[in-house]
Amino acid sequence: MVRSSVETDSALEGAARILAGLLESRTGQALTEARAWRMETALRPVLRQHGLADIDALVSRLTRKGDAALEQAVVDALLNNESSFFRDFQIFDMIQRQVLPHIRTQRKDRVLRIWSAGCSTGQEAYSLAILLRNKWPEWAGWRIEILATDISAHAVDQARSGIFSQMDVQRGLAVGDLIKWFEPHGDNWQANSHLRRMIDFRQDNLFDPTAPAGTYDLILCRNVLLYFNRERRQAVLNLIARHSHEGSILLMGAGETLIGQGEEFVAHAEFRGGYVRQSPASAPPLGLARRAF
């Protein structure tokens, strides 16, 4: 029997609710209207890979039996893994000219720890590594650690490989940095061993984290919180606060703000769009944290 357009639309709406519920339960992310209308396009490769005719067939299989691999594939497809090298160049210019020199004067133990939270396919973390490598003599004798985490196993695997397409490297990566820090890899490019060794890529969930350890001097959590509701945003900020020390710098996306989201971090006086961790003694208790570290 051929469905009417009304029946088809209704079925898709029901399927969308089920898939949106799966995404939120696994990642905490709410499926916005803008992302919902691209759902069919995003899931098309999953349908082909698993031999499913349409979204209805996908939802039927998900609800009929537990298929962890299929669930993970759906979640990965629905996540927004948009990224590029030196995304929002002004931020990276500020990191190079102001933030890193500031940290270098503060850390007398010569240890620099950076966390890229929600690293997607790794361009942000590699951009940070390039900044440091381009100024390597200034970091002589330092121990440098870059942790990069994301909930998507597929994105983390790609990031760890360091392999990017010609289109990827043309988005934000200067030709000089491409030649200096990347090597041809078939039709693609691969970050060289110097960059890859600098970064510890881990799959991790910000709501049930295992990867972060200790505290970090610089934390980038850009364009991540905007997908969460208020309570979940606060939970992530509590997590970040627990992995920060007094003076740690937090950088967020251009469209994100910490106004009304606690007092652990305050706007930095010099770093535009940056926040600094207050002394724990001057900050209120972190009442919404899910676990102690």
Summarize the structure.
The protein has 293 residues and is α/β, with parallel strands linked by helices. The protein has 12 helices and 10 strands.
Report on this model:
- The structure is a single chain.
- The protein has 293 residues and is of the alpha/beta class.
- It folds into two domains: 5-78, Chemotaxis Receptor Methyltransferase Cher, domain 1; 89-277, Rossmann fold.
- It has helices at 5-27, 33-36, 39-49, 55-64, 68-78, 89-106, 123-134, 153-161, 166-170, 175-181, 193-198, 230-242, and strands at 111-117, 143-150, 163-164, 182-185, 188-191, 199-203, 216-221, 244-252, 265-267, 274-277.
- It has a seven-stranded mixed beta sheet with strand order 6-2-1-7-8-10-9. Strands 3-5-4 form a three-stranded antiparallel beta sheet.
- Helix 12 links the parallel strand 7 and strand 8.
- The N and C termini lie far apart (57 Å).
Distinctive features:
alpha/beta, Chemotaxis Receptor Methyltransferase Cher, domain 1, 2 domains, 293 residues, Rossmann fold, 3-stranded antiparallel beta sheet
